[in-house]
């Protein structure tokens, strides 16, 4: 069973990304002004195109692109306002993993992100997944608050550098149980 290629929420359209989305999705990547500070590196020039064509597969044996989804978020007028990607089956077969989730900085603070997370949870239930997982960098205070406020409150681990410095980075694994 797979996620649908397209679904709607109250105000949004969520659909599979296509190469024609690349220009807008790259613009949204560029709108994340503090990504280098938060994560230690920016987006590679071909990040979006690579995700659409090859997937951004997890570091597990037998990772398969058929379990990967690169999704574009549009508002009711069809304007692209964000994107995310998912992998069904990481770190275990009952988990849907959010690899990245970005809302254009111009559209943040309008509850679009919450609406998308609710939709992902609804679709996850249909797939009979038991949880949704993700990793968020510890310097990403805004992201930590967002994910916690959306029910990702089970800490699965802390990974990366063991000591804090401007040039060190760690992330926290978070999980949300789906009932």
TrEMBL record:
Q: Which UniProt keywords apply?
A: Transferase
Q: Name one GO molecular function term.
A: acyltransferase activity, transferring groups other than amino-acyl groups
Tell me which PROSITE patterns the record gives.
GNAT
Which InterPro entries is this protein grouped with?
A: Acyl_CoA_acyltransferase, GNAT_dom
| Record-linked SUPFAM superfamilies | Acyl-CoA N-acyltransferases (Nat)
Q: Which superkingdom is the protein from? A: Bacteria
Q: Where is the N-acetyltransferase domain?
A: 12-177
Name this polypeptide is given: Protein N-acetyltransferase, RimJ/RimL family
**In which organism is this protein found?**
Anaerocolumna jejuensis DSM 15929
């Amino acid at each position: 069973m797979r996620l649908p290629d397209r679904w709607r929420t109250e105000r949004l359209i969520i659909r599979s990304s296509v190469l024609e989305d690349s220009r807008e999705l790259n613009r949204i990547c560029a709108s994340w002004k503090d990504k280098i500070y938060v994560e230690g590196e920016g987006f590679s020039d071909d990040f979006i195109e690579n995700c659409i064509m090859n997937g951004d597969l997890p570091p597990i044996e037998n990772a398969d692109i058929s379990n990967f989804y690169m999704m574009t978020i549009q508002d009711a007028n069809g304007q692209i306002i964000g994107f995310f990607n998912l992998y069904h089956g990481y770190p275990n077969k009952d988990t849907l993993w959010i690899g990245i989730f970005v809302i254009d900085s111009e559209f943040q603070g309008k509850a679009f992100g919450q609406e998308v997370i609710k939709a992902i949870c609804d679709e996850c239930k249909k797939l009979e997944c038991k949880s949704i997982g993700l990793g968020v960098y510890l310097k990403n205070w805004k992201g930590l608050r967002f994910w916690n406020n959306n029910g990702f409150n089970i800490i699965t681990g802390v990974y990366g550098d063991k000591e804090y410095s401007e040039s060190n980075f760690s992330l926290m694994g978070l999980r949300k149980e789906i009932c």
